[in-house]
Amino acid sequence: MFNHGLVGRVCGKIKGNIIVWHLLQSVQKKLIVAIPVCMGAGIVYGLLFPPSPLKVMILPFTFLMVYPMMVNLQIRKVFSGGDSFLQAVAQFINFVIVPFIAFSLGKIFFANEPLIALGLLLTALLPTSGMTISWTGFANGNMGAAIKMTVIGLIAGSLLTPLYASWLMGQAVDIPLQKTFIQIGVVVFLPLLAGYVTQRYIIRKYGTDAYQNRIKKRFPPLSTIGVLGIVFVAMSLKAKTIVGTPAVLGRLLVPIILLYGINFLLSTVVGKVLFSRDDAIALVYGTVMRNLSIALAIAMTVFGKQGADIALIIAIGYIIQVQSAAWYVRFTDSIFGTGEDRVDAVVRLQESC
Length: 353
Description:
mainly alpha; Na+/H+ antiporter like fold; 16 helices; globular
């Protein structure tokens, strides 16, 4: 006999999952609003309830931030040739110039607050994010180069961050080098392996077309839960400090804005001088976008109670990064000249990511 009740429950569950996914997609597109709202909610929670029990959620939220991004990472793109000079210049900016800009800003603005200075440095040490590829596509840039920059930046940044942090901040802050490497293995390379295995499994079972056109787009919104969760926990832990000295949030904005402003200016000038339009756009987004999710994860898992202090400035970085990237797309044609139609670029984005 046909079980109408069972069918109804299944259909209801599917409909519910679709609604949740669309909701997460909407939130992901509105991080500029969602992050401050979550920061405020975290502060309220931290004032009303003991925030310490939330610490058990740090690792699950961390994995949820990083793993979905790894499922869609195109590692094989790294081995495609043809743009060695572009990649070399991008990583030179990422690891030779930008960290020292952040370190200098930290010295100027947070001379007596080494933990916040370390948070600013962590923001600069982990280049590129999944949005590097997306923003490059929206601006009609070279997405193949952007994908390669994302993979190289992720791996190189993860390996170099403990060394840079120890070298530049080790005298002011206790940097547990071994623990940092172990945690990076947990929050970066374990999800990277799990994501790669997941990607291969999906392609083998459902085919490349299904993965590219239907399945892969379902993963990025899941990262939003992890990002907002970590921000909520960090703000809860710092709630009383923030309310006691509310000016601290405004004081963190200036160096973050300067960091992104200098970075955009530097990469734009280098791109215009050395590269074609498409390559220059990839260079900008491959050197200005930072992997704030992993920076947050390192702050909250490595530094214990101090992690909330470090995470505060990183959370604010989300607001500036999303807003500045969106505005830069609007001015790209004025800076680099007109490219191909944006609709074609979005199609290329879907095919190449």
